Amino acid sequence: MASRKDLLDSYQFAARRVVSAAVVHETDPTEWPYRRLGGAGMGAVMITVIALAVAGIYGMIRPGGKTSWRDGSSVILVKETGATYVYLDGKLHLTPNFTSAALLAGTTTKVSTSTKSLAEVPRGPELGIADAPANLPVAADLVAPPWSFCTQQVWDTSNSELSRSWMLVGERPDAGTEIADAGLLVRTPSGTLWLIWQNMRFEIPDEGAARSALNLGNQVIVPVGEAWLEALPVGRPIAPIVVPRAGQASKALPKARIGQVRKVTSSSGTQYFLTLASRLSPITELQASLQNGAGAAVKKATPADVSAAGQTALRTATDPPAQAPDFVALRDSKTVACASWENGEFVPKISVESEVPVDSGLNSALQTATVSANGTSLADRVWVEPGKATLVQSRPSPESTSGPLYLVTDQGIRYAVPSDAVLSSLGLSGQESWSLPAAVIARIPEGPALDPQVALAALHAQEEIKDMLSGG
């Protein structure tokens, strides 16, 4: 019969075989398995120590994202909250938006870090421009012209008639008929009648005097918004010329009176002249009709009379048409009228019965205050494709070669960009900008200028207070 010692030895032997089978996959190894296991463990410890040492050395050479913002050359983005900071002069400064942070840091480069990593860093005053854009576009997001400005008569909830306008950045309306040399009569909410001809606007201050001269008759008059009309280049009003000393004797011709219209018919056609104090001035058939409608007598003259009297031309490039134009055929006054500009154009192409793409989100576009703080009429809505923007130079005249540069965002607001350095801070250095008339750009609501000095204003104010307290 086996003793208790024999039973213990057999148990330990069986246990060793089980352990050996589990560790080295052998039931009868030549050496104790834990010896091999101990060596493996020691190797693992050594590998861990080496890995930690390498990581430490790498961390000394290239600090991690938690501290790399300390060089002040990046925008600090807090992971947990999305808040933006800049690090200036050893202090963290909260900013109200990403654009402010980019202006202060001079770059759009971001470093994400945690709230914990910033916990012990000294704080300075909040810096930035409160109403600057929350986001900035990248170069691929910038859209080119055309720009289109459309207007149409609509009705509000009380069934009152209104003239609304929409600015479409980077879009041209569908369909429509260009008016070209045809005339289009429009009326603004203030009641003034205008002729649109050759894509320019001409005021008709006295409808009675112009009715016969322009053959107004039963022509359709299209209601348009003030902002839309003011964006168009303006010509000389269609009205009688006021002649000084009208009715008095003129030296231009015998028995002539100042203000009379002289009509000369020859083989080359009919010409009209306005009698001035000492000479005759050529005028158009339309102008002659306007003068006659205002009470000026029309007298015949010969080519010899005109040659002897001398002439002074008064016409300019912005004069109204020479004759009453043919008017564009319209179904009714509810038509959509649109003006479209390509890059560098000052005179747009105007079309009627266009189709404004309202289904593309136009009705959800920014609704403006209608009139700016300085009294400028604004487009009722400004549409920029979501996620897009544009850089546009505002030029006051066709002859001008420079003008203010603006960033127009998908919120339908324009922001002045005062310098190339600022453009670089916004991540848009070297990007193409386009030019359009100042009268068009002015229809878009204006936000604050993106000026780094304005963004630093709070810091400057704090320094001034310190100087005052220290008696500096």
Automatic annotation (TrEMBL):
Membrane topology term: Single-pass membrane protein
Classification via Pfam families: T7SS_ESX1_EccB (PF05108)
GO cellular component: extracellular region; plasma membrane
Transmembrane intervals: 40-61
GO MF terms, alphabetically ordered: ATP binding; hydrolase activity
Keywords tagged on the record: ATP-binding, Cell membrane, Hydrolase, Membrane, Nucleotide-binding, Transmembrane, Transmembrane helix
Repeat in keyword set: no
Location within or outside the cell: Cell membrane
Gene3D superfamilies: Type VII secretion system EccB, repeat 1 domain, Type VII secretion system EccB, repeat 3 domain
InterPro entries documented for this protein: T7SS_EccB, T7SS_EccB_R1, T7SS_EccB_R3
Family, similarity comment: Belongs to the EccB family.
Name of this chain's protein: Type VII secretion protein EccB
UniProt source species: Kineosporia babensis
